[in-house]
Amino acid sequence: MEEKAGGCQCGRIRYSVRIEDHDAYLCHCRMCQRATGGVSIAFKSVAKAALTWQHEPDWYRSSLIARRPFCSACGTPLGFAFPDSDAMDLTVGSFDDPSAFRPVRHYATESMHEASIDTRTLPRIRSEENANVVQRWIDACGKPPD
Question: What does the similarity note say (predicted)?
Answer without folding.
Answer: Belongs to the Gfa family.
